[in-house]
Amino acid sequence: MSQVIEVKVPDIGNYTNVPVIDVCVQPGDAVKIDSPLVTLESEKATMDVPSPAAGIVREIKVKLGDRISEGHVVAVIESSASAAGDGPSPSAGNSTAERARSLDASPSQPTGARSAQAAAPARPEAPRSTSAPTSSLSVPPLYPGGSAFTLGAHAHASPSVRFYARELGVDMGKVRPTGPKDRILKEDVTVFVKSVMSSGGGSGGTGLDLLPWPRIDFQKFGPVETKPLSKIKKISGQNLLRNWVMIPAVTYHDEADITELEAFRVEMNKENENSGVKITMLSFLLKACEIALKKYPEFNSSIDGENLVLKHYYHIGFAADTPQGLVVPVVKNVDQKSISEIATEAGALAKKARDGKLTPAEMSGACFTVSSLGGIGGTAFSPIVNAPEVAILGVSKSAMKPVWNGKEFAPRLILPMSLSADHRVIDGALATHFNVFVAQLLSDVRRLVL
Ligand code: CAO
After folding, report:
1. Number of H helices, E strands in the chain
2. Is residue 358 within 6 Å of ligand 1 at its C-beta?
3. How far, in Å, CA of 169 to CA of 164, rounded?
4. Is the CB of residue 237 less than 8 Å from the CB of residue 324?
C-alpha cells in the first residue's frame, strides 16, 4: 500500500540556514531508500538528505540556493514497497514507516553521513502512520561536525561525484580534491583509482593503504587564514608526491673546494662588467654536471618499464624559485654551450620563470636537474628526484672553512653538494664517484672550460 511521506531536513547539528547546493531528483523520479534527494552545504561539509523510503518523488519543496534548517520539508515521496524494487519485503511484515524507522538503529546509514550516525545519540522514534495518508518521516541525523564523522562525509563533492565514487568503491576521504574550496571533482576520483590500480591495489600489501589526511578545525586552537594553493603549487605538489613515494632515492653529501672557481668568477664578472652578462655559480654547476653525465651515462638515463633509456643529449633543468612556486626551466644542449652562453640562457629562463612566462617547451626534456639554494643559505638538503630523471644535484651556501693542506689549516671556500639518486639505477658507489668527479671539476676551473 502506498503512503505519502514528507521528507524533512534531519538533525544537522548546530547548523541553520544551510544552503541547498544541489537538487538531485525531479517530480516523477523513482528513488530507492537512501537515494540523495537534495544536497546541503555547511561551512564544513556537504550533506545529502536521503530518501527514507523507496517510492516516487511527488514534489520537490526546495530549490537551489534556498537556505533551510532542521525540520524543513524538502520533498514529498509516495512510497511503495515495489516502486524501486528494494522496499521492505512483505514477508518481513514491516510497513515503509517501520523500514524507515529501522534505519535509525540499523547499520544502514544515509548517504553522506555513515559514521556520523554511528556516533549520533539515539533519536526518538519517527512518527508511525499506517492509517493517515500523509506521514512526516525525517531521516536520521547528519552531523558534519561530529567526532566520528568520516572524511568521506567531510569531503565536498556533488552527488554525481559521490555516486561515481560509490560505484567504484572509493573512500572519498582518500581522494585529493582539486576543485574550488577543496571540492572533489570526478577527475579526482578517476586519478585516485588510476593511482591505486597502477600501484598494485590498495590493501593487498603492494599498494599504499595510507590513513586519510587528518582534517583539523584549526580555529579551535587559534585564529587562522585560508588561502588557495597556487596553480603551480598544485601541479608541482602532485609531481613531488609521486616522485617522493615512487622513487627509492638516497642522498649523498659531499663538498667541493670552489675557492679558485669563485675568484675566477668574480674576476670575469668584473672584467665584463659592462657586457650585461653575469657569470653565475649556477652556470658552472650546469657545465660540471653535463661533463659528469658524459662520464657516468647512467645518470643521463630514465627507467622505462624493464629497460633503461640512455640519452645522448644533455639538457639540464634548474629549480627556480618564483612568487608562484617552484618551476624547473631547462637549458638545452649544455654540452654545445660555453659557460657564458649557459649563464645568459639560464638568466633569461630564470627571469621568464619569475614573470610567469615560461612555455611548456622551456620546461621539458631535462635529463638531470640542479637545485641551487646557495644564494639563500643552508648547509645540506635532500632534493627530490624529478621523474623520469634518475638524479638531482642540490647545492647549498658555500662557506669559508679551515682545510688541512698537509702543513697547516688554510681558509678555503667550500660548497656543500647533496646528490639524490634513484637507487634502482644508481648505487651508492656510483653516486659517490659522480659527486667526487663534480667536486674535482668545480675545484679546478681548467677542467671545466676545456
Ligand atoms: N654559495 C654562496 N653564494 C651563492 C651560491 C652558493 N652556492 N650560489 C649563488 N650564490 C650567490 C651568488 O654569488 C650571488 O651573489 P652575487 O650577486 O654577489 O654574485 C647571489 O648568491 C645570488 O645568486 P642568484 O640566485 O642570483 O644566482 P644563481 O645563479 O646562483 O641562482 C636560481 C639562480 C634561479 C637558481 C635562483 O635564483 C633560485 O631560484 N634558487 C632557488 C632554487 C630552489 O628553490 N631550489 C629548491 C628546490 S626544492 O624546493
Report:
1. 11, 22
2. no
3. 9
4. no
- Mean pLDDT for each 10-residue chunk of the chain (450 residues)? 88 82 88 86 73 92 91 91 41 32 29 31 33 43 33 60 79 80 81 72 60 92 94 90 96 98 96 90 98 98 97 98 93 97 97 95 97 96 98 98 98 98 98 98 88
CB 303 within 8 A of CB 358: no
Contact 141, 120 (CB under 8 A): yes
Cell of 234: 598544485
Query: Could you give the C-alpha distances from 223 to 146, 192, 216, 217, 276, in angstroms and in order?
Result: 21, 33, 13, 11, 48
- What separation in Å is there between the alpha carbon of 279 and the centre of ligand 1? 12
Quick check: pTM over 0.70?
A: no
Which residue has a Cα nearest atom 15 of ligand 1?
A: 375
Q: What is the SS3 assignment for 249? A: strand
Task: Using the mean position of ligand 1's atoms as its centre, give its distance from the Cα of residue 395 in Å.
Answer: 9
CA distances from 249 to 109, 175, 429 (A): 44, 26, 14
Task: Give the ligand 1 atom nearest the CA of 278.
Answer: 19
Query: Can you give the length of the chain in residues?
Result: 450
Catalytic machinery residues: 423
